[in-house]
Amino acid sequence: MKTFGSVSTEMEIQSSAREAWALYGAVGLTVITVPKYLAAVDIVEGDGGEGSIAKLTPLSGSPYYEKFTKVDDKHMVKETEITEGAFLDLGFTLYRIRFENIPTGKHSCITRTTIEWEVKEEYVSNSTRVSILPSINIANDIEAYLLANEKKDEDCN
């Protein structure tokens, strides 16, 4: 038997959905996550688009692999699933993260992050390790990055 779960958060970003998507989509997120959250992100299969596999090396701990199961540039949706290591080593049979950018105005959007998981019944206590907090931190970092670079662009004009 397996236990299923999900957690989601929405955050308003003061930047256009397309600008935020440039970071969330494909491998653009590495601009934010390396070196603050990860030591390295290496695409080991594919070109960073749908079907690609990335090796993520945390600042501490063992590397893990995730597959980009969906990269939809039109609807600004990206889904990844861990395929080796990390949560799978803790009895999870599925660990999926979905990022969605939803336009709300010319210079604003909602970033929705959803984590879905399945865990074997004997490891259900490990479900408490699932946290949306890193996604909230990354969304805040993306907004700060976009606002800082928008200011730099204005200074150059």
From TrEMBL:
GO cellular component: cytoplasm; nucleus
One GO BP annotation of this record: abscisic acid-activated signaling pathway
GO molecular function, one term: protein phosphatase inhibitor activity
Listed Pfam families: Bet_v_1
Keywords, sorted A to Z: Alkaloid metabolism
Presence of keyword Zinc-finger: no
Span of domain Bet v I/Major latex protein: 5-149
Keyword Ubl conjugation on entry: no
Gene3D superfamilies: 3.30.530.20
Family membership: Belongs to the BetVI family.
Entry protein name: Bet v I/Major latex protein domain-containing protein
